[in-house]
Amino acid sequence: MNNATYDIIGADYNSNRTADRRILNIIIELLNLPAGKLIADIGAGSGHYTNALAGSGYRLLAIEPSDVMRKQAALNDNIVWLAGLAESLPLQGASMDGVVMVLAIHHFSDICSAAKEVARVCPTGPLIIFTVDPRESEKLWFYDYFPEIEQHDLNKLPPLNEVTNVFSSIKHWSTQVIKFPLPHDLADKNMLSGWNRPEIYLDPVMRQNTSGFALASPTAVEEGITLLENDLRTGKWDNLNGHLRQRESFDAGFRFLLFRA
Prior knowledge:
The protein is an alpha/beta fold. It contains twelve helices and nine strands. The chain has helices spanning 3-9, 21-31, 48-55, 67-71, 111-121, 142-145, 147-156, 160-171, 204-208, 211-215, 218-234, 236-241, and strands at 38-42, 59-63, 79-82, 98-102, 127-132, 174-179, 182-183, 249-250, 254-260. Strand 4 (98-102), helix 5 (111-121) and strand 5 form a beta-alpha-beta unit. Helix 5 (111-121) packs parallel to helix 8 (160-171). The chain is globular.
């Protein structure tokens, strides 16, 4: 996992990245574990979903390599924070009742090593991965403005079948894939959450808190923002995409993956 990325973009992360209740509810449903069980949140970031799970009655070990992100985490008696990598977890074997990874897997340096580590610390699952594959998305206008980010996403975000094959093969786990169309009012402002509200991309703080923008060249971002501002001002964006403002959800390729013995 590349902690340098979030050392750069992590400042003020909690102002835009808050747990969405619908995502949390699905994670809890898929875990299917009673309150009090011990869950590892790998790539926990600043802990918005970690804290939400703790608030639902679980005990959490939050694994996060970035010091900047860990320092923003709210204190919670049910959470222990650990510096560590997905590829080398600072956890004992067979010590976890469940594992979650929320929009983190694309930052892992070696998915196979991460899968082996999860199997070591939680041999029977459940493992819940929330991820995104742009290859599974409906046609999205966002990439017309930010083609460099699209190319980065295609290079960085692993295909769903690659992820499922790697994790399911480690322990011959059963696999379930669940679509998650992004709601029109998603609280967790990830990079694609503005599919129906393009104005949010004009906020530099929002852009700072998403790895896609942070890793793109400043010139490419500035060119895309300038074009988007102009198209919003002239009405061109709404002429082409305004129908999205009336939709309740949009399939941008987000998926929940459930693995268990």
